[in-house]
Amino acid sequence: MKTQEYIETLPKGACRSRGEGLYSVMARTPLGDVSAEQLDTINAVVKEFGLPGVRVTARQRIQLIGIPEDKLRTVIERLGLVGEGRKYFVQACAGNSSCRFGVRDSMEMGARLEEFLNGFDLPAKLKSGVSGCPMSCGESYVRDIGLAGTPKGWTVLFGGNAGRRVRKGDVLAKGVSDEEALKIVGNALDFYAKNAKKKERTARFVERVGIDAVLEAVNGA
Ligand code: SF4
């Protein structure tokens, strides 16, 4: 059994998996986008090192599994970009770039949101979901920050969670532009950052302070 100190020395993107001496590595796939070149690289690495295969995770990432410890660092070198590579997790559905139901560009908005969130220092981890239409395949209603596209603009959601204590996010605004949506998200996060307890996720925060206090902060800012 490896000690916690050893685990903390593992390269970014790597983690222990089931089975003694075996590890997994997460290929970096921002917003679920994977290029043909990246697929080629992943395929070549899997074959070269005789790995059992890959797994597409619930968070839209490709995980190479069953990597023996003595091959771990070489696998990472061959793969190139691994791990999150971003401060806060954002997922996005295909949106109107390729989904026939999409009414807004969730991929582009997801990228903008990811960039925008880099400017925050929050008390707990934050997950966001951006969807190109109200069907919310990007899980917008169960993420800390959710954006769901409609023909009139974005619906902005706050305080959702899909964990053990599921919570549906509250609506902060409807029918707003890209810029307005980011401003509302920023106002909500400023309020959250100032008033949340350490490690308190947005869902628990909203339950404690009440959504009216969040709305007041958002609209009064
Ligand atoms: S949320 Fe809408 S736009 Fe996005 S994948 Fe689902 S159906 Fe398509």
UniProtKB/TrEMBL annotation:
Highest taxon, organism lineage: Bacteria
Name of one Pfam family that matches: NIR_SIR
SUPFAM superfamilies in the record: Nitrite and sulphite reductase 4Fe-4S domain-like, Nitrite/Sulfite reductase N-terminal domain-like
UniProt entry tagged with the keyword Oxidoreductase: yes
Annotated GO MF terms: 4 iron, 4 sulfur cluster binding; heme binding; metal ion binding; oxidoreductase activity
Regions annotated as coiled coil: none
Family annotation (PROSITE patterns): NIR_SIR
Domain Nitrite/Sulfite reductase ferredoxin-like: 19-80
Gene3D superfamilies in the cross-refs: 3.90.480.20, Sulfite Reductase Hemoprotein, domain 1 (3.30.413.10)
Domain Nitrite/sulphite reductase 4Fe-4S: 90-218
The protein's name in its UniProt record: Nitrite reductase
Taxonomic source organism: Pseudodesulfovibrio cashew
Lineage of the organism: Bacteria, Pseudomonadati, Thermodesulfobacteriota, Desulfovibrionia, Desulfovibrionales
